[in-house]
Every structure is written in C-alpha cells, then in structure tokens.
Amino acid sequence: MIHAEGLTRQFRVKKTTVEAVRGIDLHIEAGELVALLGPNGAGKSTLLRMLTTLLPPTSGRVSVAGHDVLTDPAGVRTAIGYVGQKNSAGENFLVRDELVTQARTYGLPKAQARQRADEALRLLDLQPLAARKPATLSGGQRRRVDVAMCLLHRPRLLFLDEPSTGLDPQSRANLWEHILRLREQHGMTLFLTTHYFEEADRMAERVLIIDRGRIIADGTAEGLKRELAGDQVVISVVDPAEVATAAAIAERIPEAVAVETDATTVRLRVPRANTVLPEYLRALDTAGIKAITAESRQSTLDDVFLALAGHSLREGHNADQL
Ligand SMILES: Nc1ncnc2c1ncn2[C@@H]1O[C@H](COP(=O)(O)OP(=O)(O)OP(=O)(O)O)[C@@H](O)[C@H]1O
To answer: Please, what's the b/e burial string for 167-188 (b: 16 or more CB within 10 A of its CB; e: otherwise)?
Structure first.
C-alpha cells in the first residue's frame, strides 16, 4: 500500500539546511494499522505530508496505493484520506452541509453526495450533531467531523496526523473506538502519527519510531520492548553503604545492562525479569545484603526510544537537529 525508498526532505532556513526526513525506506501492506511515533520535530508531519502529496520529496521514490506520488499525485489523492492537525470543516455551515459540500468537491452528484454524507455521519456517530455548526462542537466531536470529511470518497488508506493531540482522555478513547471501527468494518489501512507512546503501544499493531528524520525502530510494540528495552528491575537496600556492592553484583549478571544507582536503589535492565530477579536476590542474600523492596516492570515504548535514541521521548526535540 505504501512503498518508499530513500525518501528525503530538506528545508532551507536562513542559509542552513534542515534535514527533516533522511533517507527513509518504508513498506506498509494493505490493512495494516501503523503508528509513527516520535518526539516534536522528529519528522513525522514532513513524512506524512510527502506520502499524501502535500510536499514534494527532495529525493527518493514513493508510491501510495499503487500511484507514484510525484508522477500521479491525483491518483494518490483519490485513494487516500488525510486528517491533518488543523480542523478541516468550516465554522459557519451545518455539519451535514459541510460534508455534502465536501463530497460535491469530489465530483459526486447531489443525491450521491448526500448519501455519502449520511454514511459518514453514521460511521462516526455524528447523526445527533448533523444540524449543528462545527464551531459549537467540542474538540473530540470536531475531530470526528474531521475524520468524516475525509471518508466521503471512500478511501482505502487513511492518514491521520496526531489525531488525538489536545483531546481529553475520554475523547481520545472515543476517537480511537471510531478509528478502529473503520478498520474492522471497512478493512481500511491506517497510518497515523502520535507522540503519545502509551497510545501507540495500546492501539497500533505496528509501531515505527522516528527520530531526527530517520526510522530507528519498526515492529510490534511487544517485540520492540522485548528486543530493545527488556524489563526493568529495581531493588532498594536499607544501608546506603551497600548500594555499590549491590550494583557490582548486578553487573555480574550476564544479561544485565544499564545498571544505575541512587541513594538506596539499584536499577537494571534485563531481557526477562521473572528469571533474573530471584537470581539477583539470592546473590544479594549470599553477600549479606538485605533488599527491602524488589520490583520489576515491563518497559514502555519510551524506554525503547531511550535505549535507541539516548534521550527520552518526553524530552521532545533536540535543537541540534537544526
Ligand atoms: N516548512 C518548513 N520549513 C523549515 N523547516 C521545517 C518546515 N517544516 C518542518 N521543518 C523542520 O523539519 C523538522 C521536522 O518537522 P516536522 O513538523 O516534520 O516534525 P514532527 O515530528 O511532525 O513534529 P511535531 O510532533 O511537533 O508536529 C523540524 O526541525 C522542523 O522545524
């Protein structure tokens, strides 16, 4: 459905070159639900804008839904929907009229445009809001109108740029319910960007992590966490004087990486905590060190990002990309 090779985009800013996207290869099959996850400024929107024909690449090749983005942008546009970061419906017409007008811009005759508008209203549970003006809707409701606006030509592939940014948790959950329904009921391919790693973790079946214009990880959330970050083990000891010895014992565990300490705790990462933690506690006991707490937790995608990029997703964009 999406095939990109060596996709690159640079911007000239005051005599310097910003490399927003640097040589990305990407293959996405029909029916996939893919989240592109990365901090602010990582290149998510730039990549999305190239895939949706809104921005020409500096170099590289890309085809979307069987159409070349450079030589057949109109073909791409008929096959895709794009929900951008800004609201797409105007303020002053009724929601249903906005949808009918939008459907007419795809060249649909009046009756069919009305039918498609009603279909989109149904899909997004917007019928009760059909006679309201977008300006009077809540953020979550407006977002659903934005999605509805992009479905009128029945695209096979839907791009969503940070669809849930700015929504409260309940509206986010509701939007996701609708997004997932589009996929289940219509087999749509979904490609979205987000900087919420919990959201990518829970919702997407494939996660692409982008940092400084490059895809640095590609896989299922579970797989990436297992392979790249493992589990975290944290123990605390009574006597701060014992922390250094407890850390040295952790360093001797063959699978342990990233052993860190603070006043009374030792943290380490291991592929599987359930086998390593009992072993570590036994070794501490043998050395006469009493652990007062011991816990393990599965890594998050933020840990994966940290392991790969060397900084947390939460820290956002590093200015040195410029
Ligand atoms: N039109 C432009 N002119 C100059 N630089 C740009 C332009 N668009 C994007 N950039 C730069 O390219 C880099 C990537 O930006 P992009 O908007 O793709 O990131 P992003 O991951 O979508 O960020 P966010 O999550 O904040 O939307 C940034 O350094 C940004 O400043």
So the answer is: beeebbebbbebbeebbeeeeb
Nearest CA to ligand 1 atom 13: 20
Rounded distance from Cα 99 to ligand 1 centre (Å) = 30
Q: How far does the centroid of ligand 1 lie from the alpha carbon of residue 127, in Å? A: 36
Give, using CA atoms, the residue closest to atom 5 of ligand 1: 11
Residue ranges around ligand 1 (CB below 6 Å): 11, 13, 18, 20, 38, 40-46, 195, 321
Domain span holding position 93? 2-225
Q: Is residue 308 part of a domain?
A: no
319 pLDDT exceeds 50? no
Query: Do 145 and 82 belong to one domain?
Result: yes
- Tokens representing 58 are 């500096």
- ipTM surpassing 0.95, yes or no? yes
**pLDDT (tens digit per residue) in 33-61:** 999 998 888 999 999 999 999 999 999 99
Three-point CA angle 271, 200, 144, nearest 5°: 165
pTM: 0.82
